[in-house]
Every structure is written in structure tokens, then in C-alpha cells.
Amino acid sequence: MDKAFFQNKAAQESAGYAKLKTLVADEFENARQSIRQMLQGLGIVHVDQTSSGKGVIDACRAHRYDVILCDYRLVGNKNGQQVLEELRELKLLKPDVVFVIVSAETSRDVVMGIMESQPDEYLSKPFTQAVLARRLERQFKQAKALSKMKMLLAAQKYTELIKGCLAHINAQGRYAPWCKRTLVEAYLATKHYSQLETLCKQELQDRDLDWPMLGLAKMHIEKGDIDLAISMLEKLLQLFPQTISAYDLLAQCLEDSGKTEEAQQVLEDALRISPRIHKRQKHMATVSMVNGDAQSALKASQQTVRLGANSIYENPDDYIQLVDIVAESSDSSESKQDQKRLLAEASQALSTVTKRFANNDRVKLRKTLAESRLMASQGYVREAQQSLSMAKTLASEMDGGMPTEFALEYGKTLYGAGEKEHAEAVLSSLVNDSTTQENLRQQAADFLDEPVSSAAKAEAKGLNKEGLSLYANKDYQKAVQEFKKALALSPRHPGLNLNLVQGCLKLMESEGSKHYLITECVEAFKRLQHVSERHKQYKRLVALREYLAKNYKTKV
Amino acid sequence: MSMKADDNQLPFADVIGASVNDMRNSLGQVLYKLTGISEELDTQESKLGLQVVEYEVTRMQNVMNQLHGLYLIETDSLTIQMQEVYVFELIDDILAGMNGLLANKKVEVELRGEDICWYLDPYLMTNVLNIAILNAVRYTNDKICITLVHSEKGLSISIDDNGQGYPDVVLERFNNVKAGMSIEEVSSQNIGWLFCEKIASLHKNQGNAGETILDNESVISGGRLQVLLP
User: Fold this and answer.
1) Within a domain: residue B1?
2) Is the same domain home to B62 and B94?
3) CA of B186: how far to CAs of A321, B167, B200, in Å?
4) What pLDDT sits at residue B32?
5) CB-CB under 8 Å, B119 with A207
6) What is the CATH number of the domain that holds A416?
7) Position A138 confidence tier, pLDDT thresholds 50, 70, 90
8) How far apart (Å, rounded) are the C-alpha atoms in residues A168 and A283?
9) CA–CA separation, A475 vs A472, rounded Å?
10) Hey, are the CB atoms on A6 and B96 less than 8 Å from each other?
11) Residues A351 and A397 in one domain
12) Do B136 and B165 lie in a common domain?
């Protein structure tokens, strides 16, 4: 392994290397120079250079590079990871490009972020020309060996892909690990579950490995066996606690099965390892908002906006979400000072989203609606109404008026600005329309159930829990008191109202019919007029109403 | 002090991260310049001087990696990314990085065994093998033998030299480090071994953990460091 050996090798390769188009990006001139000279030493003639992320993207618009060596730290506000993500999204890379992220970074959040963006190669500084040469050579060799299969994969020609992978594995080819992982993907796409199971279980017999477990979990999800998927993912994370994609998958499974608190816990664990992922922070913001954890939602939403800025993932939704979280958490923040700071941040988000998506009427409409909600949350009803009427004007100028996908936001805004009947009509029609997307319907229904701040929701939830435990202990008198306290905070909540009704009925079972208890029940049913047949609590509501009518001659 | 302690505290994780980042960039430049200089030198005398510089730069790099790695382990923030890797590729990269040093020191390296694909963290194992091989460079006469063996216990990577072998006192110190006894004499060598042992033990399979062994069982009669990964 001496120098002469290496130089011979380099000389052999240089004939092929001479034609390669390469690009070097680094914030420092001397680093660019040294990498450029290393490449030239390998026989590469065409070496472009740039210092910024924008420079890389512009260069890729102009040229089709074979090799890009991009440092993580660049001049300007994009880092190497964001540049790679953007180039992929914009389809500015040749399918067989070798994209190398070069980095001297050491902190886990940065390194994990880089890994998650899946560059072809990660080269950590310092490195020598000899190391660079070897890495490139290996990349080219692999690209050559797998080019046909990678093409099949991209074209989703799974039958041929499976054949190719199996042939390579049977011939004990060097890239058998890649082929096996690709097989899992292909089996999943073609629903060849028994083949997938055989392959994964065989691998796991030999040793503990992450990808077969991940493959099995994905198979369980596809088959609808969410519980099996959850236990597989939990087992995987116990063995390999840094398998980051398993956290995201597990959180999704838990959320889908209604375990949103556990989902949030899992996302927290994932963010501790790899926080610089836009999608993950956004998921966290959404899930913690569902859980009424305004503090966590706010933090995650701020990170979402921060990570989105300058990246291909930037979305008006991120800004609107931040404004809404500030609005909904306005009565839970600790001090006046904190509140002021948050309001300033929300206002900033509103003006940024306007600037970033100028000339986009739909974004302008959403922004104006969000502004109204923010004002309403602070008690500025007049300002809220002003923004709302501005939004109505904007919508009237659009083809078809208020777009249906904004119905939820529109309904919430109407409610906040005091147009409650109109709000109820908009949201109810959303809930009852069979073409409404399931999660949108759920959100509309949730809002109709509890159009109150997240702090009020959280407090009501606690009191309800207290009431339920008193109920379980047959202390119905006290349970009814707790349910009433909770209802003062969240009066339209179906579960809570029905708990109160049930408590009253239990109380009358032992103490006989009482006028004031019947009144409580009647009032509760009146508060539940928004509950339609589609609602989860509808059956329970009907049963209790019939019981009341039958036993206490009370018609509601 | 009137200021609250919290306001005064340095965010040490960031300070260390930024400093290591800077040092890595610097070392990159130093290594690059050294390669250039090495090609221009012709006298035996100057090459001998350069060899010392190359050895020390590589050592500095290893010390920085082990120091930082141990810090990350202690603060539970070490990145571990297991992959299926051909082990000779890792070793090939390391030897390529030491190319000049090995040539100037006239140390011959022999690889034995079949190339084996193993499930490991390539970045961490590169640091471990870098330390192990440089250690062998220091103690060897003129030859290093690296052997891969796949047995029931897992993968064994042996780095053997043909030097004098380790004196008993050094072997004892190594075993103390491994047994988790307090390091009486904190030396860079001890810390290096500690790092290697910790990284090896992070590699686990079906209830077994990896380990390192230091002895004088070298196949070319000298010292040997063995890394076992289950």
C-alpha cells in the first residue's frame, strides 16, 4: 500500500477522470483550493468552485456535474444539507451524480441532519488526497455495478428489480447488503409480504440489524397490524436507539391509533437526537397542539419556521401554524413580558409570510384570516373584525369565493370575531360533507366541541379526569361538581357534558328524581346541539337522552 | 459576584464543538501542505524530519478524536450510525491517510484474511483503528500485520507489530483501564485505549458487546491490539 501503488492506480483512473465535471463548494478559499488541487492531482480537469449555497444551485442549473464536493458550512444562509435537499427537489442533479458532503462538524444534531439528507458520501475533515481518491473510486464502482438496478428502482419496475437483486445476492456480489435493503422496498411496493418476512427473519437470525426490523414494521403497517408494528419498532429502538426513521414511524403509528401523548413522547426522543429536520419539528408542533401542550407546540413551531426559512421545505403553513399556536396559547404564557415577546414573534411571522409569498392571493387570504384570529385571541375584537372583513373582500375577488380548503380556518376566524352562528354553519357543513378530508373533518369537529384556548382545554381535561375517578369511586355528588367546573371552561365538550348527565342520572338512581339535576341534564343536551350523527359520542348521546325521556319523562 | 451563575456559564458543548471543528479544518490544511512538501523533498535528512511531523500531526488528530469522542460519550451525545461496511475499505482509507508516514518510516503493512462485511459504525471504528494502527507504527520495528477473522464470537480485527512487545506494566495498565478501574496515571495512551474499549463495547449483537484486547501474541512476534465486534 505504498505511494507508487497509489500513483499507478491514480494514473489508471485518470483517463476516465479527465472527462469528469466537478464542483467544489466551501466557505473558505484555502479549503476550496486544496480540494481543487487534490481533484486535479487525480487527473480531473474541470473543477468549478463556489463559496455559497446559492452558488451551488446556480452552478447546477448551468452544468450537469458528475461529482459535487459540498461543505456543510457555506457562505450565505443555506447549509450543505439544505443545498442537497433543494437540488433533489428541483431535480437539478444527474441520476448518477456523486454528491459528497464534506464536513468538520462534530455535534450530533448537525451530523444526524446530514446523514438524514442521505448524501452519496460523507467525508469528514481532515482527509488527504489518497482518501478522497479511494472514496470516489468506490462510488464510481458501486454506481457502475448498480446502475441498472437503480434505474429500475427509479422507474418502479419492481419485478425486474427483484430479479436483479436476487441474482446479485445469489452470485454473492459485493453490493448484496444494498440489494437486500432494496428488496425489502420492492417487496413492500408489490405486497410480496411472505417473501419480505422470510428475508427479514433470515437476516435477524444471524444478527441484530435495524433494516429488517424496520422492513417488518412497515409490512405490519401496510397490512393494518398497527399494534404489531408498534411493538416491532419499540424493540428496534431498544436495540438501536439512534435509528431515527423508526421514531418517526412509531410516532405516526401511535398517533394513528389515538395515542397522541405517547406519540409526542416519541417525537421528543427523536428530536433530542436529530432536531434539525423540518418535517419532524412540524409533526411535533401538530401533535403537541392536539395534546394541549402549548409550550412544546410553540417551541417546535418556532423551530419549524427557522428550519424552513432558506430551505426548499418553507411553507406558508409553517407561519400560519406559529400564529395560531401563539393565539391559542396566549393565556397560558407565564409573564406579560413573555406574552409581548410572543405577540411580536407572531406579528413577525405574519409579515414574513406576506413578504416571502408576495403575489400569492391565497397566502394573503390565509394570512389575513390568521391575523384576525390573533387579534381575537388578545381580546381586540374590533381589529379581529376588521381583518375578517378584509379577508371576506379578498375571498370575494377570487374565483369561486372562499376556497373550500380554507373552510376550517375561516370557521375558526368567524367564531373568534364573534360571528358564531355563521361559524357554526361553516364548520358543521364541513363536518357533514362526505367529501371532506378525514383529518380536516376531525379538526372541525374538535373545534366545534371545544372552541376554547389550549390552557382552558388542558384545565378542563384535568378536572374531567378528577371527576371520572370520583365517579369510579361512586362519589357522584362530588363528580358532578368536578364536571361542572370543567364545563365552565369548555362548555361544548360532548364527552364532558355526557359525563355530567351520567353523573346526575346515577345520583338520581339513589336519591330519586330531583328537579335541579334534571335541569342540569337538559342544559347539557342544549349545549350539544352541534353533535351530529357522525360524531363519536353521538350514540352515547342518543342512549342517554332516551334514558332520560323514558325514566324521568323529560323530553329534550 | 452579582451576576447569576446561569448567565455566566459557557455553553461548553458548543464551545468544544466549534473548537474541534476549527482544529479539524486546520489539520486538513496542514495535512494537505505536508503532502505537497513531501513530494518536493529529496534529501534523506529532511525526509526524516518530515516523518516526525507527519507522525505528530496524525497523533494530534487521534488525540483530538479520542478526547472529543469521550466527551460525547460522557454527555450522552455521541452519534452512532450502524452500517454494513467492508472492513478492508475502512482500513484501506486509514492506510491511505498514513501513506506518507508509512513510506517515510519504511513500515510495511500486510493485510491478511478475507474482506468481511460487518455491521458497525464506520466513523467511530475509523477513529479506533487509526489509534490502533498509529500505536503499532510507534512500537513496530518495520512491519505491521492486520488480520480479519470471522469466528463464532464475531469479527476480530488484529493489529500486530514486530516490535519488542509491551512490557508487563503496560499490559497491566491496559487491563485496569478495561476493567473500569480509575486511571492512576492519566496518559494519552491510556485515554486512547479507554476510547477504543468504549467504542468497541457500543457495538452489540444478540446480548454480546464488543471489546479490545492488548497482548504480545503478535503473529509477527511483537505487540498486538485486537478489536472484537460481535
Assistant:
1) no
2) no
3) 53, 18, 21
4) 83
5) yes
6) 1.25.40
7) very high
8) 39
9) 8
10) yes
11) yes
12) yes
Q: Kindly state the cell numbers that stand for A412.
A: 375558526
Strands A21-25 and A46-50: parallel
A471 and A422 housed in the same domain: no
- Is A149 domain-assigned? no
Q: Would you state the pLDDT for residue B37? A: 84
Element (H, E) at B151: strand B143-151
Least CB–CB distance from B109: residue in A1, A130, A131: A1
Nearest to A125 among B24, B81, B86 (CB): B24
| Phi, psi (deg, nearest 5) at residue B156 | -115, 130
Name the residue range of residue B135's domain: 83-229
Measured in residues, chain A has a length of: 556
Which amino acid would we find at residue B102? L
Written in H, E and C, the secondary structure of A336-399 is: HHHHHHHHHHHHHHHHHHHHHCCCCHHHHHHHHHHHHHHHHHCCCHHHHHHHHHHHHHHHHCCC
The shortest CB-CB distance from A3 to any of B25, B82, B99 is to B99
Domain end marker among B26, B55, B74: B74
If one counts every other C-beta atom within 10 angstroms of the C-beta of residue A254, the result is 22
Domain shared by B100 and B135, yes or no: yes
Q: Quick one: B128 and B159 in the same domain? A: yes
The secondary structure of residue B117, as a DSSP letter, is E
Distance CA B54, CA B58 (A): 6
Contacts of A114 in chain B (CB under 8 A): none
Binned average pLDDT, 10 residues per bin, chain B of 230 residues:
53 87 88 82 78 87 91 92 95 90 90 94 96 93 96 94 93 88 72 93 95 94 95
Residues counted in chain B: 230
Asked if A177's CB is within 8 angstroms of B97's CB, the reply is: no
Task: Tell whether the model's pLDDT for residue A14 goes beyond 60.
Answer: no
Enumerate the residues of chain B whose CB falls inside 8 A of the CB of residue A240. Answer: 82
d(CA A446, CA A457): 11
B48 and B100 inside one domain: no
Residues A457-498: pLDDT tens digits?
Answer: 888 999 999 999 999 999 999 999 999 999 999 999 999 999
Residue with cell 444527474: A94
| Sign of the Cα pseudo-torsion (A242, A246, A252, A258, in order) | negative
Residue of B nearest to A112 (CA): B79
- The DSSP bridge partners found for residue A46 are A21
Q: Identify the H or E element spanning A222.
A: helix A210-222
Look at residue B93 and give its three-state secondary structure: helix
Quick check: B32 and A34 CB within 8 A?
yes
Q: How far lies A329's CA from each of A339, A412, B124, in Å? A: 9, 15, 44
Measured CA distances, A39 to A48, A541, B25, B83 (Å): 11, 74, 18, 28
| Contact assessment for residue A310 and residue A300, using Cβ atoms and an 8 Å cutoff | no
A483 with A512, same domain: the answer is yes
Identify the DSSP state of A88.
H
Distance CA A546, CA A540 (A): 10
Tell me how far apart the 2 most distant CA atoms of chain A are, in Å: 102
- Grid-cell match 413522547, residue found: A265
- Average pLDDT for residues A87-99, to the nearest whole number? 91
Q: What ipTM was estimated for this complex? A: 0.89
Count of domains for chain A: 4
Cell of A488: 365552565
Residues 6+ positions from A307 with CB-CB distance below 8 Å: A276, A277, A278, A281, A313
Co-location of B29 and B137 in the same domain: no
Q: What does the DSSP assignment read for B160-215?
A: EE-SS---HHHHHHHHHHHTT---SS--HHHHHHHHHHHHHHH-EETTEE-EEEEE
- Domain range spanning residue A378? 315-449
Residues of chain B with Cβ-Cβ distance to A130 below 8 Å are: 96-97, 99
